[in-house]
Design brief:
- This protein is mainly alpha-helical.
- Helices cover 82% and strands 0% of the residues.
- It has 22 helices and no strands.
């Protein structure tokens, strides 16, 4: 009935009698488990742990392989999971599973529930492959015994999240399998828990899948609904911060930078209170810095990017592409502020990581382009040409019709012009103009820049002839 306080009172009165007249009895165990479950909802985990340990001690004496023993161990594992004591949680859950597999039918919803909880623990403790196995085993049972149930919906959600995380670690955004699971999860949770964190997370991950297909309008609607749910059930949670972060990234893609900035500030404010040194905080600060870069507010970008880099260096491996991404943006800001020497240092540090971890990637190609531009400013024309050519070789594989590639051709055209190689200069600049004309609106400054350079080259050709 949802009357937890009244339930605790009844269980307490029960135990006052039961522990005196029948201390080793199923009723005593059931009362301990029931009271512990209520106390856990109030986040009084140490009290709950002691009750559950007592219930397990009683069951070991009277029925060590019974369903009640399995239930007591399951709740003990849940209590340890809430306390983030992963090793003890797994031990209790594995013991519970062993009993359930022996004493219950093969397809039993109770077994599915414990498999789901074990999957959550493996997810949190770093065992993604084992977590995937647990969630798949859970679903083999749950989809036959409790098809429309929170456990089934959330198991599909967590399995999809693990699969997406593995694909992201492999630099892949092919989320078709995960997307199908998320659609099923959303449909189930919409029926049984429409205003839950699980529903909000399913919508968030579906939006990520949709963004990978460049369907930003549809993704934004899902993210807004996710945020609306979280404002009611978990307004100061990491999940809320993540939803705001993804919504900001979608908004930036649509060039609504001011809106994105406000969402990112809210996301970072939440994370400063709940996870100030997390990878998510580092990502939020990086994206906040990027929003300032896209608005041309260079000095505001540096503090956010520097903080992001500090957290990433503390929490990520030394050679990690996320560190390279932030070093790249810091280099861009210093270049735009006129500090070419610092910019060169940042780009070189970026490339030390990027060329080992993401050798064929837009960030690697564009860092080489920026480094070529800095070399040109320092009068090192030969070195600039080599850097532009290396950038071109990468970008033609990953972004052949991108603004970055157009800028590479502008750089090459300028280098060739300065070297009096006018035919090559004309070819490179014409290619940049072709790309910019395809990508950008008429009258854009990059189109004009390419036209001006081409005009200068033609004038020099005319003069020399």
């Amino acid at each position: 009935l949802g009357e937890k306080e009244k339930a605790v009172q009844m269980f307490t009165e029960c135990l006052e009698i039961a522990e005196q007249i029948m201390p080793l009895h199923h009723i005593t165990v059931i009362a301990l488990i029931g009271k512990a479950a209520c106390v856990m909802e109030q986040k009084r985990y140490d009290e709950a742990e002691q009750m559950l340990l007592r219930s397990c001690d009683i069951m070991r004496q009277i029925a060590p392989m019974s369903e009640e023993m399995a239930r007591a161990l399951h709740e003990l594992g849940r209590c340890y999971a809430e306390k983030r004591v992963w090793r003890e949680a797994l031990t209790a859950l594995q013991q519970s599973l062993a009993i359930k597999r022996t004493s219950l039918p093969q397809l039993h919803s109770s077994t599915a529930t414990t498999l789901y909880l074990a999957g959550l623990v493996y997810t949190e403790s770093g065992g993604k492959e084992t977590a995937i196995q647990m969630f798949r085993e859970c679903l083999e049972i749950a989809e036959q015994t409790i098809p429309i149930h929170p456990v089934t919906g959330n198991a599909l959600l967590m399995l999809a999240a693990c699969v997406m995380e593995l694909q992201q670690s492999q630099q892949s955004q092919q989320y078709s399998e995960a997307e199908q699971m998320l659609l099923r999860s959303r449909d189930i949770l919409n029926q049984v828990a429409p205003m839950s964190e699980g529903m909000a997370k399913a919508l968030l991950l579906l939006a990520v899948c949709t963004m990978a297909q460049q369907q930003y309008g549809e993704a934004e609607q899902m993210l807004l609904r996710s945020c609306n749910i979280l404002r009611q059930v978990a307004p100061m949670s990491e999940l809320m911060a993540r939803a705001l972060l993804v919504l900001a990234i979608s908004t930036m893609t649509q060039q609504r930078y001011g809106e994105a900035e406000q969402m990112l500030l809210r996301s970072c404010n939440i994370l400063r209170q709940v996870a100030p040194m997390s990878e998510l905080m580092a990502t939020g600060l990086h994206e906040l810095g990027r929003s300032y870069v896209l608005q041309g507010v260079w000095r505001a970008a540096l503090p956010a990017l520097d903080q992001s880099l500090t957290i990433k260096r503390a929490s990520l491996p030394l050679l990690h592409p996320d560190v390279a991404n932030t070093l790249y943006l810091i280099g861009v800001v210093h270049k735009e502020l006129g500090d070419v020497t610092t910019a060169v240092q940042m780009f070189r540090k970026c490339l030390e990581i990027a060329e080992q971890t993401i050798p064929i990637h837009v960030v690697t190609g564009d860092a080489l382009r920026y480094l070529g531009g800095c070399s040109m400013l320092q009068g090192q024309i030969g070195e600039a040409e080599q850097l532009f050519l290396r950038s071109q070789n990468i970008l033609k594989q990953v972004a052949p019709m991108s603004e970055e590639m157009g800028r590479v051709f502008i750089g090459l055209g300028t280098v060739y012009l300065l070297s009096s190689r006018l035919l090559e200069a004309e070819q490179a600049t014409s290619e940049s103009l072709r790309i910019f004309t395809f990508l950008l609106p008429q009258g854009h400054q990059l189109i004009q820049q390419a036209k001006d350079l081409l005009h200068g080259i033609c004038q020099m050709k005319f003069s020399s002839s």
